[in-house]
Design a protein that fits this description.
The protein is mainly β. 8% of the residues lie in helices and 35% in strands. The longest helix is centred in the first third of the chain and has 6 residues. This is Hsp20/alpha crystallin family protein.
């Protein structure tokens, strides 16, 4: 049985992207983030569905900044119409003071990348003993 419905035609191809972007001059391929800071850790969650975390997601920390980069390539013989976003997605955020970038951990579950950066606790004051010799 063939459909009698006409093929869907997009009148303004960029309109959906424009409406989906909260800021007119914002990054086209922005990822959505959630941040949480506790006394022990900074936790960043990034919405990245459909990415291969082993090959296409990279996390770096440098000069007080945490950067997540993800890439998705379109299939050259893909669908005629797609509202998926392809290309490079990148976000950088400032890390809190005393973030221990040597102990960063990350996990990817159900399209969500969760990056945890421990926060070093301020050093305890050194006790000075009074006594002879």
């Amino acid at each position: 049985m063939t459909s009698i419905l006409p093929r869907r035609r997009v009148v303004f191809p960029g309109l959906i992207d424009w409406l989906d972007n909260p800021w007119l001059f914002g990054e086209r391929n922005a990822m959505r983030l959630e941040e949480n800071v506790t006394k022990d850790a900074y936790v960043l969650r990034a919405e990245l569905p459909g990415f291969d975390p082993g090959e296409h997601i990279h996390v770096t920390a440098e000069a007080g900044m945490l950067t997540i980069t993800a890439e998705r390539e379109a299939d050259p013989e893909g669908p005629e119409h797609s509202e998926f976003r392809y290309g490079t997605f990148c976000r950088s955020v400032s890390l809190p003071e005393r973030a221990d970038t040597a102990k960063i951990s990350a996990r990817y579950v159900d399209g969500i990348l969760e990056v945890t950066v421990p926060i070093e606790q301020p050093g305890k004051p050194v006790e000075i003993k009074v006594g002879k010799g």
